[in-house]
């Protein structure tokens, strides 16, 4: 059974696939933070702005692979160009070969947004890795590397030898969001191997 925080249809707001319609499947749980505020200061990742605790979100619950695919199909509807984005928390704690292959059999392209600390040993169409400073990066190749910026102590040059098609910097949200956006833009201007990623879904009021 898969513990799912929420499932919803939206417009992808970040990275190379921004603007694309997708069903987001958010798994519950993460290996870099419990999701509870009392543990944030001691967590590896302290800046997450996503609620991934429990199964009480929209369409959340405990699903078998069959029931999860039925729910996704119902949410997607009859249209083509099918895309599922598996996210979290950390989706690789639960996403497995069985679920991935069943999605593909139904004609879905599957994407994942992962922190890259757990090896991916089955086929995923689009791999987006968002590394967190202080964690061990295991997934060193994929379609896009999306680094939240700035992270104290992180050296972006360390990522340049990895095998990703796109390198994105995304301003860290929060109280310093505006200042971080200015810093991110400036870094991209000075280091054009990096592209700017902004959270467009927040600008248009999408989840």
Helical fraction: 10-25%
Unreliable stretches covering 5 or more consecutive residues: none
Tell me the strand order in the biggest sheet.
3-1-2-4-5-6-7-8-9
CATH architecture, by name, is: Alpha-Beta Barrel
* Number of contiguous helices: 4
Secondary-structure element order, N to C: EEEHEHEEEEHEH
**CATH fold-level label:** TIM Barrel
Shape, principal axes of CA atoms? globular
Rg over C-alpha atoms, rounded to the nearest angstrom: 17 Å
Number of folding domains? Answer: 1
Average of pLDDT: 96
Secondary structure: number of strands? 9
CATH H level: which superfamily? Aldolase class I
User: Span from first to last CA?
Assistant: 25 Å
Structural class, by secondary structure, is: alpha/beta
Strand content: 25-35%
Which secondary structure elements does this structure contain, and how are they paired or packed?
Layout: E1 2-11, E2 21-27, E3 61-63, H1 65-76, E4 83-87, H2 97-105, E5 109-114, E6 126-129, E7 141-149, E8 163-171, H3 177-190, E9 195-196, H4 200-203
Parallel strand pairs: 2-4, 4-5, 5-6, 6-7, 7-8, 8-9
Antiparallel strand pairs: 1-2, 1-3
